[in-house]
Amino acid sequence: MLRIINTGGTFNKRYDPLKGELFVPADNLAVEAALGPLRPGGGVQITGTIYKDSLQMEDADRDRLCGIVAECPESSVVVVHGTDTIDRSAEAIEERLGVRSEKCVVLTGAMVPFSIDRVEATANLASAVTAARLLPPGVYIAMHGLVLPHREIVKNRERGVFERREA
Predict the structure, then answer these.
(1) What angle do CA 132, 135, 136 make, to 5 degrees?
(2) Is 60 exposed, middle or buried (0-12, 13-18, 19+ CB in 10 A)?
(3) What SS3 class is residue 149?
(4) The three-state (H, E, C) secondary structure of 76-140, written as one string
(5) Please, what is the average pLDDT of the chain?
(6) Which is the most buried residue in 12, 37, 95, 138, by most CB within 10 A?
(7) What is the total count of domains within the chain?
(8) Whole domain around residue 103: which residue ranges?
(9) Does residue 72 sit in helix, strand or coil?
(10) Contact at 8 Å (CB) between 97 and 103?
């Protein structure tokens, strides 16, 4: 069994033609659509929470996310999250779970909304789902073809991609 916790972020954003802006809807439609081809055998539960761009996430939101991760019965967990503060949430989850955790938690997101370009978001989610099912316990980030322990990956804001952190 795999749990996907959807917190919002760019992955989920849609365009509001009346306001002329992107917004994070309080639903799981983007995740469900991207997950479609990955669910043929079932065994995936989706939990939606927070529904914010990660730049708007506060400590209370991270506490809530950490609580959901810690309390869910599944040992394989994917968190769909905004990319701007994905590292902060990964660190908070690791601190909350502790070193003896049996959970494999993989955070992922998208630089471009699923509603605009389905390829990147779907590829990142597919990588995260596979990683959560195969990797040993720990907290990882899956972005742009990389799946690494969260401390080993960084968002390169100049290039707009995630890459291995230089030692």
Answers:
(1) 115
(2) exposed
(3) strand
(4) EEEEECCCCCHHHHHHHHHHHHCCCCCCEEEEECCCCCCCCCHHHHHHHHHHHHHHHHHCCCEEE
(5) 95
(6) 12
(7) 1
(8) 2-164
(9) coil
(10) yes
